[in-house]
Design a protein that fits this description.
The chain is an alpha/beta fold. The protein is built from 27 helices and 18 strands. It is an enzyme of class 2 (transferase).
Length: 616
């Protein structure tokens, strides 16, 4: 294991594409930092969530002090289950779209992960100096590790070892039913039942839960006292030695011990149980003498089983930031933007250890040698050990040297290292084939990352309610219009396609409210098309533009489905732009089919539509 402070010193080489924004956002506090190099954090701040109306104002406030930097990538750990683009926080009235936040901040990459998934990802880097062990037990090698922590809620996760690393669990185990262990805890449960029909562990083993325990025990003990916050209860116990506060902490620690034991036996966590969150570290050394460990081992026939499992309190500050940094780094390693494996190695070379960099240099300078030689010779030529060669391969996401060689050979065979380069007159058939395929794949992946989901939702809504749909397009875009007419007509929506400027100008004048025009243009500047769109809007129809985001056509439309791919269309047909336009038509078509919004479309029709999309 590596100490987190030591980790920050491992590399001071700045990221080639600038610093990365990291955040651990709970219901009460948000912890933010800029990662300027692998493991090097700066500008760490802790902000109160109550001071902000949402996640975007919070991030903008933090970034206001860093106006001179350019950010491309960010990752946020959020105290919430993460499932899809839309995030609605459980313990705070914040809701946001991941893609909308990404666009608002002008980022290329924005990852949202569960906060305890991020904390679990940080565990393999912890060292004894970062921890306080509570009780006995010894961690088993290559064993499952559990983590839980009370804060505003109760986070739960786990780390599961694999052949060449580990995986973390995105869990909501804090919402398991609370199980009382004695009469006192049953009285607390009865008190909580007055407010909630379902009482989870999180309701009681958390900051707000500690306050409930305080009120419940005051009532049970016949003590009249003013309510206290959880920090006030901890201070009352440890500083004032208040008997009620001490009983609350003892009861709380026992409940946490029971929850930790349940997690340990559920996971078989012989690697240990780690306690994070904002509550327990405030208790300091007192927690080691609390009822936590006795309750952890109080498992009847399985007491010996649990006695062998160590338990630790994480004492190092902001550990989830290290985990979320690792998650972002792994994500970017898998999607570096390089068109070939050679480019990917060059792009990620600065993130490798010095020994691994020597292997990377050999691969870049003598790729055929690396393909043809055994591991012993590769290690000798790179002046490293054989395990370093294996670590190099795994750092790039491969299982080992054999897996790396297989993918590397495929990358070298016929791959032309280009980024969105156009086919030229002198290109051979071999080169032009590779360019067309590489450019198209790269453009589609970039297009996927920059999709405006809200605009697509709006387009699907307009088409689903349309009385009729008309496609207007000229030149190379006509094939896209005909494809759209063919697909949308099967939804039993009256559909027409016009490719002649005189015809669609006349047709636009016959439209009325409830009709939809889908105007398709690479340039978005054709005067005839703009005139027809103006006529359609004047007649009360809505216009969906498939074009560049800043074009005159986009500005005239009700909604724009942007295609911002740059191509030299003066010499060659706009091949990739046409592919992206067709993709947008398919996305809207599939959205209509899944939404079931087509006019009187029966189950059999939906089935045929989906089969049609799969066939195409």
């Amino acid at each position: 294991m590596t100490n987190l402070a030591d980790t920050a010193k491992l590399s001071r080489t700045a990221f080639a594409d600038g610093p990365r924004l990291l955040a651990d956002i709970g219901a009460t506090h948000a912890r933010l930092a800029l990662e300027t190099a692998p493991g090097a954090f700066g500008s760490v701040r802790v902000l109160r969530c109550d001071d902000f109306e949402g996640i975007v104002p919070l991030l903008q406030f933090y970034l206001a002090d860093h106006g001179g930097i350019t950010l491309h990538h960010a990752a946020l750990a959020v105290a919430n289950p993460i499932n899809g683009d839309q995030v609605r926080m459980t313990n705070r009235a914040w809701e946001f779209s991941t893609d909308a936040v990404r666009r608002e901040l002008g980022l290329h990459t924005l990852l949202i992960v569960n906060d305890f998934t991020a904390l679990a990802m940080a565990l393999p880097g912890l060292k004894p100096a970062d921890l306080m062990q509570v009780g006995a037990g010894t961690a088993g090698a290559n064993a499952v590790v559990g983590v839980l922590g009370p804060g505003t809620g109760l986070g739960v996760s786990a780390v599961i070892p694999t052949v060449d690393g580990f995986v973390t669990l995105g869990s909501e185990g804090g919402h398991m039913n609370f199980a009382p262990a004695d009469e006192r805890e049953f009285a607390i449960l009865q008190y909580a039942w007055k407010e909630w029909s379902h009482v989870s562990n999180e309701r009681l083993i958390s900051g707000p839960g500690m306050e409930i325990i305080y009120r419940a025990l005051a009532l049970r003990n016949g003590i009249k006292t003013a309510p206290r916050t959880s920090p006030g209860i901890i201070a009352g116990a440890l500083e004032e030695r208040d008997p009620l506060c001490l009983e609350v902490l003892d009861c709380f620690s026992g409940m946490l011990g029971g929850a930790a034991a349940n997690l340990a036996v559920t996971l078989g966590a012989f690697g240990g149980i780690f306690i994070g969150g904002g509550i327990v570290p405030r208790m300091g050394e007192w927690f080691a003498t609390s009822s936590f460990r006795a309750r952890f081992e109080a498992k009847g026939r399985f007491s010996d089983y649990l006695a062998s499992i160590p338990t630790y309190v994480i004492t190092t500050p902001h550990p989830a930031l290290y985990g979320v940094a690792t998650i972002l780094s792994e994500h970017l390693r898998g999607r570096s933007g390089a068109n070939t494996l050679m480019e990917r190695i060059a792009h990620l070379q600065h993130e490798l250890t010095p020994a691994e960099q020597r292997v990377a240099k050999l691969v870049l300078e003598q790729p055929r040698l690396v393909l043809n030689e055994p591991i012993a010779e590769i290690a000798r030529f790179a002046d490293v050990s054989q395990p370093t060669v294996i670590r190099f391969c795994r750092s790039l996401g491969f299982l080992g040297l054999a897996d790396f060689k297989l993918k590397f050979a495929s990358s070298l065979t016929g791959a032309i290292p280009v980024r969105h380069s156009q086919v030229r007159t002198g290109d051979s058939t071999h080169d032009l084939s590779a360019k067309v395929i590489d450019n198209t794949v790269s453009a589609i992946l970039k297009f996927r990352d920059q999709l405006d989901v809200r605009s697509i939702d709006r387009a699907i809504e307009l088409v689903s309610k349309a009385n009729r749909v008309e496609f207007y397009a000229m030149g190379n875009s006509r094939v896209v219009a005909l494809d759209g007419q063919h697909k949308f007509f099967r939804f039993r929506i009256p559909t027409s396609a016009y490719g002649d400027s005189h015809l669609f100008t006349l047709a636009a004048g016959l439209l009325k409210a409830g009709d939809v025009v889908i105007a398709i243009s690479n340039s978005g500047r054709l005067p005839e098309l703009l005139e027809a769109v103006d006529a359609a809007r004047a007649a009360g129809a809505d216009v969906i533009a498939i074009t560049g985001s800043g074009t005159p056509l986009a500005k005239r439309a009700t909604v724009c489905l942007a295609v911002d791919h740059a191509e030299d269309s003066t010499t060659f047909l706009s091949m990739i732009s046409r592919m992206l336009q067709l993709l947008l038509i398919d996305i809207v078509s599939v959205g209509l089919s899944l939404d079931g919004s087509g006019k009187e479309l029966g189950e059999a029709d939906h089935r045929r539509m989906m089969i049609s999309h799969l066939d195409s």
